[in-house]
Amino acid sequence: MLSERPWKLEAVLALLAGLVVGWSALNLSAIGVTQLALHKNSPNRLFEFIISSFSFYIVALVLIHFFLRFHGATWNDLFGFRKLRWQSIAAALAAAVVFLPAGLALKKLSAVLLTKVGLNPVEQTSMQALELSVSLGQKIVFGIAALLLAPIVEESLFRGILYPVVKQQGYPKLALFGSSVAFAAIHTNLVTFLPLFLLALVFVFLLEITDALLAPVIAHSCFNGINFAVYVTGTDVMDWWKGLMRAIRHALPSVQHLVETLCPALCRVLLP
């Protein structure tokens, strides 16, 4: 299984160290570009936005590529394209949609608890950046990062590499909860920590039942896509979710009728 992939521990540690060093270097470059832009009275240049948003993902993609080559593996091996089935894709999409209201409720609960202990709940940095993105170019760049780069990189690191290597050391529970805590912590936001932690557990479950990293990648992309669409359009998440549930209920009889009609015909054609 992918979750039992024999990654070498020293290679994983080198990957994490390189990620920290590379990310820090690119962030320092981004700070320099921002200061230069401020000096020229042009703080909203798209170039700055790309550097600050993409630094982590650029470094991670390069390092993961060489990590896979070191183990004689490919991106195809990591994602498990050959093992993915349509049932796995359906499960991934359903997991993202079903978790959405639960995640929203947990986020609101976290905000209330933080307020009660005297802390000021603030929005996640990425969402703040999206709210400040006024140009179409910035929104497109942010959309690419949220829907494509973030799911690929974060799932590769946390579910594809970190979770298996800790599990193979003989600590399956530490692998499950440790990788999930790390996933939530890297987003550096107390309000979203609990919902992201539970979402990470869902992603591990998808990985285990499908044995294909592409399943949690799809679920991650779908979850991010919903949130991205909500912020861009200014709609309420719960209103969107309720509308989707109504549409699914209305579509179910038609889908059931279609399946009942086509299945016998397909069986007669495909089976001897």
Walk me through what this model shows.
The protein has 272 residues and is an all-alpha fold. It has a domain at 81-235. 82% of the residues lie in helices and 0% in strands. It contains ten helices and no strands. The chain starts with 8 loop residues before the first helix and ends with a helix.
Brief summary:
The chain is mainly alpha-helical and 272 residues long. Helix content is 82%, strand content 0%. It is built from 10 helices and no strands.
- Output the radius of gyration: 21 Å
Q: Would you list the SSEs in sequence order as H and E?
A: HHHHHHHHHH
| Backbone structural class | mainly alpha
Helical content, roughly?
over 70%
Span of the ends, CA to CA: 34 Å
Tally of individual helices: 10
Mean pLDDT equals: 78
Overall shape: it is globular
Largest sheet: none
Stretches with pLDDT under 50, minimum 5 residues: none
Strand content: under 5%
In total, the number of strands is 0
Summarize the topology.
Blueprint: H1 9-39, H2 46-70, H3 75-79, H4 86-116, H5 125-132, H6 136-168, H7 172-185, H8 190-210, H9 214-233, H10 237-270
Helix pairs in contact: 1-2, 2-6, 4-8, 4-9, 6-7, 6-9, 7-8, 8-9
Descriptive terms for the model:
mainly alpha
